[in-house]
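Internal ticket - ligand job 263, 1HE:
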Amino acid sequence: MELPSLKLNNLTMDTDGEIAIVSLNRAAKRNALNAETIEELIDVFAAMPRTGARAVVLRAEGDHFSAGLDLVEHHKQERSAADFMHVCLRWHEAFNKMEYGGVPIIAALKGAVVGGGLELASSAHIRVADNTTYFALPEGQRGLFTGGGATIRVAEMVGRARMTDMMLTGRIYKDEEAVTVGLCQYLVDDSETKAMELAKATAEVPPLSNFAICSAISHTRNMSALDASYMEAFVAGVVNTQPASNERLAAFADKTAARVKPK
Ligand code: 1HE
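stdout (structure tokens):
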């Protein structure tokens, strides 16, 4: 299936073979997330599982991945509490589509990954940082609170105590420390090249396995351990008997498959 290319107002989607490259395209505003960008993310990621994309690289134009909530739009619109609750529900719609969609998303990070920008990055399955990348939750300093899932995803990545410190004090994490605390899994010179390399590696995994990895692990969060183990057995029943796994097991048995050893 040919992957579609798209040019929306704030996002573009290009393709490299079976990899979709989704770019935040609002560099003049440091890729701040206005309401329209969130609607575009919903459209793109709702459709993604049916495009045939084997993996996604999520990247940004300009020097910064994303400066988070569009503070100017928020200020100008004088939203009511109910208005902003609905804004947040749209953010959740977008980010849940990404996290639970079953297609691996690799985020190529740089510059500011702050506030809602970190919430967006935390909805990807793998985060790759470069040496310009920094992470923060400046909501406290702005007199705000997170509304795009940070209390769930960022707290899970770094732990509640660290997230609370980030929000209370504006603490910024970067470099090796960001890897150590769990904000990203890779720190490299060129995050886009590395993200593409990882996307190509994940695209070699059978789509049904990718679907399970990029949805079932997240779904366990919402279940008791007993239900999660039942679901895991059920998913494994389907995935581990797929034709693609039979071929790979046959290759292992006849010693033509690669062994799992460090290089
Ligand atoms: C913006 C935004 C934005 C830039 N909303 N317009 N997020 C923050 O608190 C981060 C706010 N942004 C910054 O701290 C800085 O802009 C950066 C460190 C990211 C970049 O600095 P710099 O010097 O390169 O750019 P700048 O001069 O600050 O901004 C350039 C333009 O981008 C300028 O617009 P212009 O029309 O005057 O040129 C800025 O107004 C615009 N811009 N960031 C709107 N965030 C669901 S709840 C989530 C809650 C949050 O995300 S709180 C965190 C908000």
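Auto-summary: The chain has a mean pLDDT of 97. Residues 81-100 form the longest helix (20 residues).
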